[in-house]
Amino acid sequence: MSDLEARFHDLLSQIVPVDSAAAERARARQDQLTKPPGALGALEDLSVRLAAVFGSERPTPERAAVIVCAGDHGVTDEGVSAFPASVTPAMVANFLMDTPSGPGGAAVNALSRSIGARVYVLDVGVNAALPESPRLIAAKVRSGTRNLRREAAMTREETLQAVFAGVRAAEQAIADGADLLVAGEMGIGNTTPAAAVTARLLALDPADVTGRGTGVDNAQLDHKITVIRDALARQASAPTDPLGVLADLGGLELAAMLGVMLAGARARRAVILDGFVEGAAALIAVQLQARVRDYLFPAGLCAERGHGAQLAYLGFSPLFDLSLRLGEGTGGVLAVPLFRAAAASLREMLTFQEAGLLGD
Ligand SMILES: O=C(O)c1ccc[n+]([C@@H]2O[C@H](COP(=O)([O-])O)[C@@H](O)[C@H]2O)c1
Ligand SMILES: Cc1cc2nc[nH]c2cc1C
């Protein structure tokens, strides 16, 4: 076993179960708050899950950070995206650009500013030199993956290097004060590896989990499904080895997001998922270590086909459906105010008894 693989197993074993006693106290408190029991709907369940993560029936998830993991994909040679691969470095430059409104001119920057979340940009595999920036975490493993239609996208070592880059980025965000981590990504072509990983890990037909990504037409969608079928037909990874599936069919930014999820869980922070690409990384995370599931939180249902199957497998109900299909972590960022509100209901609402509203 390589040194990295040994460290990876240590990381998995250091993830402890969430605090179910705190969850029970939070549930009991929700039931006594000045409202009909259950009237805050999904916010109540969210608050109870947050209590379990933070080990308190009065959780305080306030500071949010989004880690946008970026990488390129050799499979773009097959024409699986509506946009050229050059958009990946261009968008990363946009995430880092100084604008009159503040740092970053992309949707994730604007949405994050609107809710006071910090944006970290992590390069694990962009196929171009990037501008220097204090906001860029430079951890390029290689300049994009290999073409997964023809060969394994990454070696196991490359995969683990990208995972640990994600771990370090999450640890940096946590050291800077984040208690809500949003996993986000940028990588032209990455809905193809996300669909391939999902099909293999959930034993589903590629046609059922492959969507239009950035907006491919019907003919391109059929071709994309064929590319994924060819990748699966190489039979180079078994569903019983999720890390092997990630190396074979995944991508560098998927691996980095896995690292963000594992590091977040180890540090007992909540990790908010965005869309379909995050969902694929989450499947790997929970198949490697089932305890991670309780630290992961869905945001909205995204428009990419297959996201619903991922959430169903994970046992999550989405918080909203805004037909988002952008990526970057945008859906996760939009969910942050709901997390703060859910926790505030537990902390700040009075019980009937505290409010003196109890009849006799
Ligand atoms: O995460 C999602 O649900 C999602 C759905 C559709 C598109 N994306 C974004 O679009 C890019 C991938 O789309 P594509 O068509 O190039 O595979 C990548 O940069 C993602 O951030 C992301
Ligand atoms: C412009 C653009 C922005 C993106 N952000 C995430 N994926 C993207 C794909 C494109 C094409």
Automatic annotation (TrEMBL):
<comment type="function">
    <text>Catalyzes the synthesis of alpha-ribazole-5'-phosphate from nicotinate mononucleotide (NAMN) and 5,6-dimethylbenzimidazole (DMB).</text>
</comment>
<keyword id="KW-0169">Cobalamin biosynthesis</keyword>
<keyword id="KW-0808">Transferase</keyword>
<dbReference type="Pfam" id="PF02277">
    <property type="entry name" value="DBI_PRT"/>
</dbReference>
<dbReference type="InterPro" id="IPR023195">
    <property type="entry name" value="Nict_dMeBzImd_PRibTrfase_N"/>
</dbReference>
<dbReference type="InterPro" id="IPR003200">
    <property type="entry name" value="Nict_dMeBzImd_PRibTrfase"/>
</dbReference>
<dbReference type="GO" id="GO:0008939">
    <property type="term" value="F:nicotinate-nucleotide-dimethylbenzimidazole phosphoribosyltransferase activity"/>
</dbReference>
<protein>
    <recommendedName>
        <fullName>Nicotinate-nucleotide--dimethylbenzimidazole phosphoribosyltransferase</fullName>
        <ecNumber>2.4.2.21</ecNumber>
    </recommendedName>
</protein>
<comment type="pathway">
    <text>Nucleoside biosynthesis; alpha-ribazole biosynthesis; alpha-ribazole from 5,6-dimethylbenzimidazole: step 1/2.</text>
</comment>
<dbReference type="InterPro" id="IPR017846">
    <property type="entry name" value="Nict_dMeBzImd_PRibTrfase_bact"/>
</dbReference>
<feature type="active site" description="Proton acceptor">
    <location>
        <position position="328"/>
    </location>
</feature>
<keyword id="KW-0328">Glycosyltransferase</keyword>
<comment type="similarity">
    <text>Belongs to the CobT family.</text>
</comment>
<dbReference type="InterPro" id="IPR036087">
    <property type="entry name" value="Nict_dMeBzImd_PRibTrfase_sf"/>
</dbReference>
<dbReference type="GO" id="GO:0009236">
    <property type="term" value="P:cobalamin biosynthetic process"/>
</dbReference>
